[in-house]
Amino acid sequence: MLNQEELKEIATLQADGSYVVSLYLNVSPGTKGDYVIHLKNMLKKFSEEDRKIFKKIKNDIEKLEAFVTSNKREFKKGLAIITSSEKSFWKEYHLAVPVKNAIIADKTPYIQPLLDILDNYKQYAVLLVDKESARLFLVHLGEIEEYAEVHTPDVPGKHKRGGWFSLSGHRFERHIDYHVSLHIKDVIKKLESFLAAERIERIITGGSDDAVAKVREMLPKAVSEKIVGAFHAEMFANVNDIFEKVRPVISGFESMEEKAIVSKLLTAAGKG
């Protein structure tokens, strides 16, 4: 999945004696396979304009042509490939939005179209949490990917006895609350790191009611304000089930946001 951290790594790629080839291709179903023709036309134009560079990237060109003509079933709407035979590097992105056709050979990767997609299509952080574990997911362009897990296995449980667990009443409850708070602090630290790394402005929370409430209570205000919705799911739920729970939350939020924008425009027009 397209994300900021990976693009930062790709941006550091340097082709010392050769070139990095960046291909962007509109492969939307509506093109009816015309993208193969567009690719061949781009390659022909490239070879005519700079034959010297074209010869140096011959291996990359052959790989790109072979991939585009033989992997049609994987395509969505946009295809981006960064490749360098010299560095044994290949990275492909199957995008849910179309891209402008382009092929560029340079000493470094051309990733601006990918950065633009991250800026224009908002990402969501999904936090699934209970009192001793948490899972973080990234949702973007109709896809979900598990990002990280947090586990605190030594949180006390009521079923155990002896040692700390021999405490009774309020002291025992306070001890549990203390350990849960430590766990939630770890979760929040991981969440904040995730938000910063991927520049995410929208959060959806899920999990046990107590843990979610504790997270909301302990979150810094600036982070808490990014929460746009919630859902219910078990900690062991698979990623696809979680996505099915999250999708209506996203749709509802974006619909509400669109209505707010329209309302503001109508109000502004009325004042004008």
**Structural class by SSE content:** alpha+beta
SSE arrangement, N to C: HEHHHEEEHEEEHEHHEH
Low-pLDDT segments = 158-167
Shape: elongated
% residues in beta strands: 15-25%
What integer is the average pLDDT? 87
The total tally of domains equals 2
Q: How big is the Rg?
A: 24 Å
Number of helices: 9
Largest beta-sheet details: 5 strands, mixed
CATH fold field value of the largest domain: Nucleotidyltransferase, domain 5
Strand order of the largest sheet: 7-6-5-8-9
The level of helicity is 40-55%
What is the tally of beta strands?
9
Named at the architecture level, the CATH assignment of the largest domain is 2-Layer Sandwich
Q: What is the CATH homology-level superfamily of the largest domain? A: eRF1 domain 2
User: Quick one: CATH class of the largest domain?
Assistant: Alpha Beta
What does this structure look like?
The chain is α+β, with helices and mostly antiparallel strands and 272 residues long. It has helices at residues 4-11, 34-49, 51-56, 58-70, 112-120, 169-198, 209-218, 221-224, 239-271; strands at residues 20-26, 78-84, 89-95, 102-106, 124-129, 133-140, 143-151, 203-207, 227-231. It folds into two domains: 4-119, Translation, Eukaryotic Peptide Chain Release Factor Subunit 1, Chain A (2-Layer Sandwich); 122-266, Nucleotidyltransferase, domain 5. The protein has nine helices and nine strands. The strands form two sheets. The protein has a five-stranded mixed sheet, with helices on both faces. The chain has a four-stranded antiparallel sheet with strand order 3-2-1-4, with helices on one face. Helix 2 (34-49) packs antiparallel against helix 4 (58-70) and helix 6 (169-198) crosses helix 7 (209-218). The two termini are 44 Å apart. The relative contact order is 0.12.
